[in-house]
Amino acid sequence: MSFHDILGQEDAKRLLQNALRNDTVSHAYLFSGPSGSGQMSTALTFAQAIFCTVSDDDACGECLECRKVEHGNHPDLTILRPDGASIKIDQIRELQRMFSYRSEGVNPKIYIIDEADKMTVQAGNSLLKFLEEPSAPAVGILISDNSRALLPTIQSRTQRIPFSPVHPDLMLQALASDGVPLPLARCGVSLTSGLEGCRQLLEQNWFAEMRNLVLQLAKESLGKGSSALATAGVKLFKTGLGEHLDTLFSMFHLWFKDMLYFLYRKHESIVFIDQLDFISRHARQRTTEQWVGYMEFAAESKRKLRSNANAQLCLEQFLIRLES
């Protein structure tokens, strides 16, 4: 992995490579931005570049140090992730214990904390002491899609590296090279902020199945005497797809937006492009206000779901509102 392999994020890459060239690598960074936009792959590349014995501003990918990072067995690199719902104080204490030993090489030890905003207050306070007074030379990389949830004192003691959503066209080109079918790729790209997150989503076995189900339900809900409720009951809660209702409502939101894109002649923006014929025949069956209202239904259903409302009830209420 090299910085050249990371899609987009030019500002983040420039800041990190300048630090490598000028030998001004900070003791702690906060990679802040939407989930899946490349923070982890950038963090690993940055770690490789610090350890690399060949290049001074990138990872060569060939030297022993780079290959150790690639294979996940570099002794001076530690990756910390939530244990269950949070990162606990015991995990930070174990990190401090490991970092009390000297590095095996001439470079500092590196730790990456994924989903750093999920640290408990106790874990955050413990990390704060470590950030201020590491027992050995260390570089910390905190990754977060909700950096405001971090203790303000941690935010102030790290150098923020901003990450932004990757342009959809760039992601589509990369996914086409991977051989991902265009209809699936367009849907995945519209639901994620970067190639890293998009690939993870597309690798889920249920994703293509969910897309097909959303199309079926969306078409059935437009007809008289709709059977969408019955279809949802059978196909969602008896197959395990019911665990991914958040994605279902997001896909419905895209579907309703596609109807508006057609009405406003923005065909190039349509996500469900393989359904253009159906969309062209049905977009005018509802007014602009109705399609916008349906988008609001989908967004409201997602909010209810995240507030731990009953999943099946959420879906039933949503489908009934579409048919009324």
UniProtKB/TrEMBL annotation:
CDD domains the UniProt entry points to: AAA (cd00009)
Keywords recorded for this protein, A-Z: Nucleotidyltransferase, Transferase
Superkingdom of the source species: Bacteria
Pfam families named in the record: DNA_pol3_delta2
UniProt-recorded Gene Ontology molecular function terms: 3'-5' exonuclease activity; DNA-directed DNA polymerase activity
Residue intervals passing through the bilayer: none
EC number: 2.7.7.7
EC primary class: transferase
Matching InterPro entries: DNA_pol_HolB, DNA_Rep/Repair_Clamp_Loader, P-loop_NTPase
GO terms for biological process, alphabetical: DNA-templated DNA replication
Name under which the protein is recorded: DNA polymerase III subunit delta
Originating organism: Paenibacillus agri
Native organism taxonomy: Bacteria, Bacillati, Bacillota, Bacilli, Bacillales
Name of the encoding gene: holB
